[in-house]
Amino acid sequence: MKLSLPGALAVLLALLLLPGLGAEPPVPEGAADGDLHPALDAAPATGTIEGEVLLPDRPARRVAERYAGAGRGASQEQPPVPAVAHIHGAVGRGPGAARDGAPTLVQRDTAFVPGLLVVPLGAEASFPNEDPFFHNVFSYSRPKRFDLGRYPRGESKSVTFDAPGYLKVFCEIHRWMRAGILVVENPHHAVVGDDGRFTLSGVPAGTHTLVVTDFDRGAKEVEVRVPDGGTVQVQVDFGR
Amino acid sequence: MDYSRFRLTFRAKILLALVGTVVLVIGVSLQAINRQTSAQIIGQVERAAETSRRAFAEIEGLRNEELERLGQRFRGIRLHAALEASLADEDPGILESVAFQELEVAGLERGIVAFADADGREVVVLLDQDPHPPSPRAPPDPLVLRLLEGEERRITGYRLYEGVLYSVQVYLFDLFVEPLGAMTLGFALDDAVARRLGEVAGAEVCFVVGNRCLAGTEKLRSGGIASGFDELLRAGAPRIVTTDEGESWALMAGTLEGGESAGVQQVIGVPLDEVLLPFQRIQRTERWVGVGALLLALLVGTMLSRGLTRPIRTLVAATGRVRRGEYDFTVDVPSTDEVGDLADAFNGMLRDLALKEKYRGVLEKVVSRDIAEEMLKGEIRLGGETRNVTTLFADVRGFTSLSEGLASQDIIAMLNEWFDLAAGAVEGEGGVVDKYSGDGLMAVFGAPIALADHPTRAVRAALAMQKALVGLNRIREERGQPPLDVGVGIATGSVVAGNTGSQNRLNYTVLGESVNLAARLCSEAGPGEILVSEAVRASWEEVDAVQGPLLRLKGLSYEVRPWIVRGLGRASPSTASS
């Protein structure tokens, strides 16, 4: 069917004048979700998510070689990588800035410090070696596959993380070293404490997908409805 | 059962015994050899199997060590992380490339490297560094499952993949806590491996799955002995096989440690010819010895039996002669053994018999045959018995005058002629000449051998005597000699009969009144007269006899009226008393 030029123009106009109908239009940087009128400078409606993560103790089915007291240098006993909670997807005005300065994953005492690093999407993280021997940091996780090679103390390498997701980071030389890197698209994330609790505040009201990721046990998604000005309690149980 | 019809000669018996013994001995020893041979073969095969197993275990041990070493580097965190990432992303690519890198670095060009998830499903397989994407529907390898479901971190075993047998080690991959999956690392078992193994073990070796030899030495792969493996595996005992070229092999199956999951077993073939050769030689020798022994047995048997049969036949012939009454010969048997002893005894017996015969002959001349027999029987009693007998006395009338002017030899000759005749007549009637006394003789009828009609016999004997005398006198007349006249007296009655005399010299005789009577009647009898007592006459009815005169005889207290007998049978009227 042949469209006449006026008809086509009409369609084009309709498309332009009907944002927000159906698919979400690409949100310009800085725009908050649901804000169709950026000119309006109204205070965004936010809420708080208080969460509790249940990580049941699953005893290793077999004695792990690595933990079997081989005495291979310092810090054989590694504290587990903390779990991390975040809101999935692009929410709010972008990933926000890194909380504690440029994201850094240090190799110290044959361990990664911190165990869990959050990197805003697009940011560059550095991996300085503070140990008196070589490390070889690498990850095969899909968001970013990298292998930094060996470098000695004092040197550092950097990686830009341009895809969101959870990465498992290892050291080729020291097999017990591990860390998790979470590349986030929004500023709503928190490392789960030792007590298993976390709090996400300033979360835009509405329905979100909350994801809690544990290094060993994988990720669990929960749909959360954040009330405007309120708190929602959430429990994520990895046992079930 | 009638055994008399079935007769085995002594020779046959000896031959049977000897031949039988030889056959038995040879047979038993051949059996023993056979048993020994089998035992040896089994021993040999088992030893070879043991050697091969040990060699194989050593080689496998070395290979496993090598795999261990490789396994160490292959269990680096990289592969773990790569496996984890591949499983999480459901993309085997990252694992493949990392695995390939690791293989290159390790310089491992040949072999199998396979990765499976925690359920045993394989995600990446590299054969000789080439990726072989596994089919998602392929069942998990039993070894992998065993590892994942069990308590071990590493197991060694075998794996059959796309028709090739691999000796593998399977490692558990876990990322700190939970099992992630498993890595299989191994070398192919090919003919080269089997050949090396065979060289070390000194046998033919083959790795068998089902009925197929997957990797083996030449002979077991395709040679004449490659067959029937599943039977062998079932049987569990060595099996002897002969190839078309006539070689003997013993095949034995054995399980491989860790081979159950892949169903692989090891078959070992041991050449038997060397083992069998000495036994075959012994058997051959034994057979020749057997034949020789048999011939020897036949020869010896024949000789032995002849050594026995001939003398026996000689003796048998000799007894035949003895039965015919010949005693005056000796048996000639030259042997010095028991047969010779028998012959000597036989000869001794012949001498004794001959002597006895001589004595008998002499005895018979002295006493009558019957008495002689009784005496020879050995029952010589001094005592006697009472019996009824008839006694006969006969002597020549006027002997003294007859013998006047005759030479002594002529007198004796005359006497003997008369005695011969008289004795003949007596013995012809079953009587016994008791004694010769001067020109007369005494005969007894009814002793020692009982005769029912002894009186009649006595009379008949007397009549025969007289009749014979007629003939003799005729001859004497022809010779120009005077005739002999004889008188006979016969009496019957109870007598005492027995051997009188001493132990060394006996005389069988009868004593009694009737004896005396007979003697007296004889002296009363005229020439040619037969006087019998009343009792004799009474003993039969029909006799041609007349009563004689009343006599008073010496020695008897009563008078006797004898009868003159002329003949037996009815008295004929023509007979007249003399």
Brief descriptors of the model:
heterodimer; A: 240 residues; mainly beta; 5-stranded mixed beta sheet; 5% helix; B: 578 residues; alpha+beta; 8-stranded mixed beta sheet; 49% helix
TL;DR of this structure?
Chain A is mainly beta and 240 residues long. Chain A has 1 helix and 16 strands. Chain B contains 15 helices and 21 strands.
Notes on the structure:
Chain A is mainly beta and 240 residues long. Chain A has 1 helix and 16 strands. Chain A is globular and about 70 Å long. The termini of chain A are far apart. Mean pLDDT of chain A is 79; it is low at 27-35 and 63-75. The relative contact order of chain B is 0.07. Chain B is an alpha+beta fold and 578 residues long. Chain B starts with 9 loop residues before the first helix and ends in a 10-residue tail after the last strand. Chain B is rod-shaped and about 175 Å long. In chain B, 49% of the residues lie in helices and 24% in strands. The chains are: A mainly beta (240), B alpha+beta (578).
Task: Please give the largest β-sheet of chain B.
Answer: 8 strands, mixed
Mean pLDDT of chain B: 82
Specify the biggest β-sheet of chain A. 5 strands, mixed
Total helices of chain B: the number is: 15
Q: Structural class of chain A, please? A: mainly beta
List the helices and strands and how they pair.
The complex is a heterodimer of chains A (240) and B (578).
Chain A: H1 5-17, E1 46-54, E2 84-87, E3 106-108, E4 111-113, E5 116-120, E6 124-128, E7 135-139, E8 146-151, E9 156-160, E10 165-171, E11 178-184, E12 189-191, E13 197-204, E14 206-214, E15 218-226, E16 231-237
Parallel strand pairs in A: 1-16, 5-11
Antiparallel strand pairs in A: 1-13, 2-12, 2-14, 3-4, 6-9, 7-8, 7-10, 10-11, 14-15
Chain B: H1 10-74, H2 77-89, H3 92-106, E1 112-117, E2 122-127, E3 130-131, H4 142-149, E4 154-161, E5 164-175, E6 178-188, H5 191-201, E7 204-209, E8 212-216, H6 218-222, H7 229-235, E9 239-242, E10 248-255, E11 264-271, H8 273-323, H9 338-366, H10 369-376, E12 384-396, H11 399-403, H12 408-428, E13 432-437, E14 440-445, H13 454-479, E15 486-501, E16 506-511, H14 513-524, E17 530-532, H15 534-538, E18 543-547, E19 551-552, E20 559-560, E21 563-568
Parallel strand pairs in B: 15-17
Antiparallel strand pairs in B: 1-2, 1-6, 2-3, 4-5, 5-6, 7-8, 7-11, 9-10, 10-11, 12-14, 12-15, 13-14, 15-16, 17-21, 18-21, 19-20
Helix pairs in contact in B: 1-5, 1-8, 2-3, 8-9, 9-10, 12-13
